[in-house]
Task: structure prediction
Amino acid sequence: MTCSSSPIGGTKKEINITLKNTGKFNIDGYFIKSTETAEQKIGTQNLTGFFNQTASELAGVSNSASFFGETLKFYNSLEPNQEKKAIFHIPNSAEITIDSIEIIPFRFQKFKNKNRFVTCGEAKVLQKVEC
Result:
C-alpha cells in the first residue's frame, strides 16, 4: 500500500491510496481507519465515509467497508498482484488528524455452500501518511 495526502483548494484534504494484493487469494474489500498519533498502533477513525467513488477504481462502500466488487455482488475482486487506486476527500470541517492509515483486507469464502465473511488480520497494513 502506498498513500499520500495533499490539500485541495483549502477546503479539504485528498488522500490517495494505491492498494496491491500481495497475497495468494482474491480480496473482496477492506476496512480503512486512521490513527491520530505515531504512538497509536490501531486505527480508530473510520475513513470509509470520505471515499470518493467517482475518482477511484473501486466499486463502492458500506458504512464501514470499501468493496472491490459491485457493492455486495463480489464478482470483481482484487486478484493477487493486482493494484487499484482509492481516493478519499476529507473536508477540513471534519477536524480529523491523520498520522497513519490502517488497512485490513477481507474476502468472502464459500463454506458449506454459503459465503462467509473472513478478515485477513495477518495482512493488516499500517502506514504513515506523507504530506
Q: What stands out?
A: The chain has a mean pLDDT of 78. The chain is about 0% helix and 45% strand. The chain has one domain: 2-128.
